[in-house]
UniProtKB/TrEMBL annotation, chain A:
<dbReference type="Pfam" id="PF00528">
    <property type="entry name" value="BPD_transp_1"/>
</dbReference>
<dbReference type="InterPro" id="IPR035906">
    <property type="entry name" value="MetI-like_sf"/>
</dbReference>
<dbReference type="InterPro" id="IPR043429">
    <property type="entry name" value="ArtM/GltK/GlnP/TcyL/YhdX-like"/>
</dbReference>
<feature type="transmembrane region" description="Helical">
    <location>
        <begin position="195"/>
        <end position="216"/>
    </location>
</feature>
<protein>
    <submittedName>
        <fullName>Amino acid ABC transporter permease</fullName>
    </submittedName>
</protein>
<keyword id="KW-1003">Cell membrane</keyword>
<keyword id="KW-0472">Membrane</keyword>
<comment type="similarity">
    <text>Belongs to the binding-protein-dependent transport system permease family.</text>
</comment>
<feature type="domain" description="ABC transmembrane type-1">
    <location>
        <begin position="22"/>
        <end position="213"/>
    </location>
</feature>
UniProtKB/TrEMBL annotation, chain B:
<dbReference type="InterPro" id="IPR027417">
    <property type="entry name" value="P-loop_NTPase"/>
</dbReference>
<keyword id="KW-0547">Nucleotide-binding</keyword>
<dbReference type="InterPro" id="IPR003439">
    <property type="entry name" value="ABC_transporter-like_ATP-bd"/>
</dbReference>
<dbReference type="InterPro" id="IPR050086">
    <property type="entry name" value="MetN_ABC_transporter-like"/>
</dbReference>
<keyword id="KW-0813">Transport</keyword>
<comment type="similarity">
    <text>Belongs to the ABC transporter superfamily.</text>
</comment>
<keyword id="KW-0067">ATP-binding</keyword>
<dbReference type="GO" id="GO:0005524">
    <property type="term" value="F:ATP binding"/>
</dbReference>
<dbReference type="InterPro" id="IPR030679">
    <property type="entry name" value="ABC_ATPase_HisP-typ"/>
</dbReference>
Length: 229, 246
């Protein structure tokens, strides 16, 4: 009897392994996002300060992470830097670091954009009641920037999660990597298993990313509605 | 003799190459109300923004309560608690309720306890007739209401000098009266020292102890309020009053 391809998922510990891989992916993405978003907010705030040198350095940092493809960043940090600098980090940590630095770079641009679009009068009214710079950002500018930047931030989060599929390239046992192993190990028995394995990976990514991008869209729409009265 | 609150000497202000304020000299005693009048673009906003450090000036000095201000950002930031300012655009913080808008300065800047500050804020809200709006967000208020709250927010810090920059200029006509009444009451009842920039000539005449008339960045005349409106000393001021249909 021909084996139905879908059974590849229920063969042995395959499904558990796939979910295990998903968990690794989610863990790396989650830690990277938390660190990256926090660092990104700080860098974004710094990028609105008058100091030119500071702004230039942070701008270069952003452009570097924007221009260099994530694949290249992963290779750079995983294969090249350890040799040059003599640091040896496990692949998971390298991946987390790269994604965190990338998230921080993109987030800094989102935060900066939102901060400079808070009207100048808001800044001056805050100064007029004696707020110092820290208080001005803390109570006036950042809270107003957050509502402007939230949809863009969620879109960034979905992009980062999607891009975690590259983790297989530096031998992190993420969901894609596990999937590939499952496909190869079961190739004889389930020739069509490849569709089912990648199919379920698709469903996994979709289940995480779709609600996020739906949420971002809805918020953007609501804001436009409010802006148009 | 009344105490001198603010003194300005030989103040010069440039925007890049543009010479905006020329050798400005005046002083104001405690309790005095000064109307700063002049055509649009004469430098009124720029001048009062120099008095709380929102604009840097290139020459001259500002003396507050007898101490010459060393114009660093830090010094101005401390002084702004004593020099309240209300702007033309009623810019309450949209992310905070009316009460939190008012309490931000007293609680975060002056480190008053929230209870003390709240009691004081509610008293001020009563005086401007907006006590029932304390938990409302600014977007739910009319322009006139927002501007009254902005005045309360500045007063909550207990300033010694208030600067008003055309605070009724972007209000609907029916809202103007209410805001002007609050400023008049402040002048009469609490003896507040203030500089008022306005294009409401009747209002200026009613409250001004003295008028500074500014044109092209120069003070052309400083005249007692009642006299300025009957008998301005310069032809330019006379033309200005005529142009304002006064
Ligand atoms: N930020 C600025 N940069 C350059 N010029 C300015 C700026 N703000 C005001 N000015 C100029 O300074 C002059 C005085 O402006 P302002 O103080 O706003 O006058 P007023 O309040 O009396 O209408 C005007 O000629 C104006 O164009
Ligand atoms: Mg003006």
């Amino acid at each position: 009897m021909a084996h139905s391809g879908i059974n590849v998922l229920f063969e042995g510990r395959n499904l558990i392994r796939l979910f295990g891989g998903l968990w690794t992916t989610v863990e790396i993405a989650a830690v990277a996002l938390v660190l990256g978003l926090i660092l990104g907010v700080i860098l974004g705030v710094l990028r609105t300060f008058p100091n030119r040198l500071l702004r230039l350095v942070l701008r270069l940092y952003l452009e570097f992470f924007r221009i260099v493809p994530t694949v290249v960043l992963l290779f750079l940090f995983y294969y090249i830097l350890p040799k040059q600098l003599g640091v040896n980090m496990p692949a998971n940590q390298v991946a987390t670091l790269v994604f965190a630095l990338w998230t921080a770079a993109e987030m800094s641009d989102i935060v900066r954009g939102a901060l400079i679009s808070v009207p100048k009068h808001q800044r001056e009214s805050g100064m007029a009641i004696g707020l110092n710079r820290l208080q001005l950002y803390r109570y006036v500018l950042i809270p107003q920037a957050v509502s402007l930047e939230l949809p863009a931030t969620i879109n960034l989060v979905t992009r980062v999660i999607k891009t975690t599929s590259l983790l297989m390239l530096i031998s992190v046992m993420d969901v894609i990597n596990v999937g590939q192993q499952v496909v190869e190990a079961n190739n004889q028995k389930y020739p069509t298993g490849v569709f089912w394995v990648y199919g379920i990976i698709f469903v996994m990514y979709f289940a995480i990313d779709y609600p996020l991008s739906w949420w971002a869209k809805r918020m953007d729409k609501k804001r436009l509605e409010r802006a148009n009265g | 003799m009344a105490k001198q609150v603010i003194k300005v000497e030989h103040l010069e202000k440039y925007y890049q190459k543009d010479h905006i304020l020329h050798d400005i000299n005046f002083s104001i005693d405690q309790g005095e109300v000064v109307a700063l009048l002049g055509p649009s673009g004469s430098g009124k906003s720029t001048l009062i923004r120099c008095l709380n450090g929102l604009e840097p000036y290139q020459n001259g000095t500002v003396t507050f309560n007898g101490d010459q201000v060393v114009p660093t950002e830090k010094n101005w930031q401390k002084l702004r608690q004593k020099i309240g300012m209300v702007f033309q655009s009623y810019d309450l913080f949209p992310n905070l309720t009316v009460l939190d808008n008012i309490l931000l300065g007293p609680v975060k800047v002056q480190k008053q306890s929230r209870e003390t500050a709240k009691a004081a804020a509610e008293k001020l809200l009563d005086q401007v007739g907006l006590r029932e709006y304390e938990n409302v967000y600014p977007r739910q208020l009319s322009g006139g209401q927002k501007q009254r709250i902005a005045i309360v927010r500045a007063l909550a810090l207990n300033p010694e000098l208030m600067l008003f920059d055309e605070v009724t200029a972007s209000l609907d006509p029916e809202m103007v009266r209410g805001v002007l009444n609050i400023i008049s009451k402040l002048a009469q009842d609490s003896d507040m020292t203030m500089i008022v920039v306005t294009h409401e000539m009747n209002f200026a005449q009613q409250i001004a102890d003295r008028v500074l008339f500014l044109e092209d960045g120069k003070i052309l005349e400083q005249t007692k309020g009642d006299q300025f409106f009957k008998q301005p000393q310069t032809d330019r001021a006379k033309e200005f009053l005529e142009s304002m249909d006064f």
